From TrEMBL:
The keyword Metal-binding applies. This is 2OG-Fe(II) oxygenase. Residues 110-212 form the Fe2OG dioxygenase domain. Gene3D superfamilies: q2cbj1_9rhob like domain. Its cofactor is L-ascorbate. GO terms for biological process: cellular response to hypoxia. Keywords: Dioxygenase, Iron, Metal-binding, Oxidoreductase, Vitamin C. GO terms for molecular function: ferrous iron binding; L-ascorbic acid binding; peptidyl-proline dioxygenase activity. InterPro entries: HIF_prolyl_hydroxylases (IPR051559), Oxoglu/Fe-dep_dioxygenase_dom (IPR005123), Pro_4_hyd_alph (IPR006620), Pro_4_hyd_alph_FE2OG_OXY (IPR044862). The lineage of its organism: Bacteria, Pseudomonadati, Pseudomonadota, Gammaproteobacteria, Alteromonadales.
């Protein structure tokens, strides 16, 4: 027994990144989406949540739909507020390092050709929503893989705010994902309509998209 006193488990219950990446890859192979409650490393999501809270509300902008000249604010579709994440501060950089490792892993394992990652914090104030939509339109391939990580400790069954992931355009029932702290969701951007139901409290997340390189000669495809 004395020897056990010196035994220290290598890490806590959460799987190592490689194990998690492997599970995600297997999910994507078998069902083109991955829903992993509580899978994110605790220190990473705690750090990200603290970072999100430290950002001044003035840095948030009303979210819109479309990009560039097609950008449109439309309260009928979505009412959340967003703030793009860059590597300016350490927690943001750690997050981008982690997502870059995931990107490399998926490229090696699944040959996905993921080229870049854009992502933002999203704040859905109580009652906010994002109606059913696709993150990418077929044929306009650039957003390939959507990612959402939830940053809401203690989210309860009565808090609402589920993300509903529909299996295809005819699916009306969908799979409800509770936006609980540390839950990670990934899905092929062109394949799954999804929506965010209104919540009864503030709802925080980091949502992002891995993109392929659609730059044409001489014309760089901007990251957002
Ligand atoms: O927050 C979520 O659960 C999903 C957000 C979303 O669909 C998006 O930002 O495109
Ligand atoms: Fe979306």
């Amino acid at each position: 027994m004395a020897a056990l006193a010196h035994f220290r488990p290598e890490h806590n219950d959460s799987p190592t990144d490689k194990t998690l990446f492997s599970l995600i890859a297997n999910d994507l192979i078998s069902q083109s989406y991955s829903i992993r409650p509580g899978a994110m490393p605790c220190d990473l999501v705690d750090n990200l949540l603290a970072y999100q809270h430290s950002i001044s509300t003035q840095k948030y902008e009303q979210a819109g739909i479309g990009r560039g000249d097609d950008f449109l604010r439309n309260d009928f579709v979505r009412t959340d507020k967003i703030c793009w994440i860059n590597g300016e501060f350490e927690p943001g950089q750690r997050w981008l390092d982690w997502t870059s490792q995931l990107q490399q892993f998926l490229n090696r394992r699944l040959f996905m050709g993921l080229f870049s990652f854009e992502n933002h914090f999203a704040h859905y104030a109580s009652g906010s929503y994002y109606k059913r939509h696709y993150d990418a339109l077929k044929g306009e391939t650039n957003r390939v893989l959507s990612q959402v990580t939830y940053l809401n400790p203690g989210w309860g069954p009565d808090d609402g705010g589920e993300m509903v992931l529909y299996r295809n355009e005819n699916d009306l029932e969908g799979i409800k994902v509770v936006p609980l702290h540390g839950t990670l969701v990934l899905f092929l951007s062109e394949e799954f309509p999804h929506e965010v139901l209104p919540a009864s409290r503030d709802r925080y997340s980091a949502a992002g998209w891995f993109r392929v390189n659609t730059s044409l000669a001489g014309k760089i495809d901007p990251p957002r």
